[in-house]
Amino acid sequence: YMKKNLLSLAINGRNDQYNPYFLERLKYQIEYTIYIQKKLSLNNFIRFTICDWGSEFPLSKALKLSKNYSKYIDFIKIDKVTANHNSHKKDRYYSVSLAHNVAIRRSKGKFIAQSAHDTFFSESSLLNLYHFLNGKMYSHINLQKMFLWVHRIKLPEKLFEKKPSYDFLTRWLSHSGHIE
């Protein structure tokens, strides 16, 4: 029996080459987040729930994740026929809201965060979020009746011209974004 994860990161996507960086960034984001989680010894903290909305070649295979990473992910595959039937041509047969809802509804964590393929947490952000959700910070706040919005900063394209090492990205995130 495995203890329920504290936080599910609900993500959606499709393997359709619409965004040429999608697969690479999603894989990097998953691996980096798990790397930080392990580095900080945050056991049973984050699990990914990824809704694959109509991919012909499934994201679970396209990402080519090792078992060390794939064990932290639940993929929910929506076949192309169902995705197209529940979407509009003008939106490339991609219903972002329905895909988000599928990922959120199928998430198993005590708490759920809607995330994206390019959302990266700094070590301090992940640690603070962990302590906050465990009631060790701001314990006077009733988390059962709360919606938390976390502002994102846009990462510059230059940062990803070459895949940055985990140490480089960690330093960059910790120092609010100056490229060396």
Order of H and E elements = EHEHHEHHEHH
Query: What is the terminal separation in angstroms?
Result: 45 Å
**Number of H/I helices:** 7
Please give the share of residues in helix: 25-40%
| Mean pLDDT value | 87
Proportion of beta-strand residues: 5-15%
Question: What general form does the structure show?
Answer: globular
Q: Using only CA atoms, what is the Rg?
A: 17 Å
Number of strands: 4
Largest sheet: 4 strands, parallel
Class derived from helix and strand content: alpha/beta
Low-confidence stretches: none
Main sheet strand line-up: 3-2-1-4
Explain this structure to me?
With 180 residues, this protein is an alpha/beta fold. Helix content is 35%, strand content 14%. The chain has helices at 22-39, 59-62, 67-70, 80-85, 96-106, 123-133, 166-174, and strands at 7-13, 46-53, 73-78, 111-114. A four-stranded parallel beta sheet has the order 3-2-1-4. It is globular, with a radius of gyration of 17 Å. 26% of the residues are buried.
Short synopsis of the structure:
With about 180 residues, the protein is an alpha/beta fold.
Spell out the blueprint of helices and strands:
Layout: E1 7-13, H1 22-39, E2 46-53, H2 59-62, H3 67-70, E3 73-78, H4 80-85, H5 96-106, E4 111-114, H6 123-133, H7 166-174
Parallel strand pairs: 1-2, 1-4, 2-3
Task: Note the main attributes of this structure.
alpha/beta; 7 helices; globular
